[in-house]
Amino acid sequence: MKLKLDNPKILADIITIISDIVTEVRLKVNPEGMAMTAFDPANVAMVFFSLPKDLFSEFELEKEEDLGINLDNFKAILRRCKPGAALTLERADNMLKLGIEDRVKRDFSLALVDVDIEDKELPEWDFTSVVKMNSDSFVEVIEDCEVVSDACTFTATPDKFIVEAAGLNSARAEFSSDEIEIHSANSTARYSLEYLKKFIKGAKVSSQVAINFSDGHPLRINFPTGNVMLSFVLAPRIEQED
Predict the structure, then answer these.
(1) Which residue segment(s) compose the domain that 171 sits in?
(2) Considering the entire predicted model, what is its pTM?
């Protein structure tokens, strides 16, 4: 296996974002490109990303590779890629060789780890509500809710999308179908802001976000950038009755 990215920033940004949610992952490289699916330790959230083959300037692969990666260590190396640098990745036994090609060529070796997780694909659901909007606006709304509570409620109708949170204080934002793209029946669901504030970092890689949810069902948030996809899934917040 030998891969080369002439612009490794997108990979570095994605790894930095998902390292807040999971620590060790199995990075898969196949003829379609590079992809990863992982669960957080509490099995509340799921994260997925894919980089297509055509994003790489070199893509040599004799067989599919399954790479156990510690994300903190991987992230630290990727941060050494300065603007304009290229990144190569090669498998050598139980090591991942990373080369940074800049004014000086630098080489790193990252020990591969055994990651004992079940292989799962990103689930496909039929969502009642699909909302597409500017990712910076979504970031603002989630940060507003975080000020007043630890969870927020998403409500969608055919012509409105509402995000609100309430504790001793409250926050509320409402968008109409004239402002954003809404494909929805009537849906309401509640989600943890602890996870949402991590997910919204995906705005760093995409100017748009797609929010998919149904009554009391898991949420899926997609941050698409061309053929690159960063997605998160979050279980609904179930309030305990007294």
Answers:
(1) 129-234
(2) 0.93
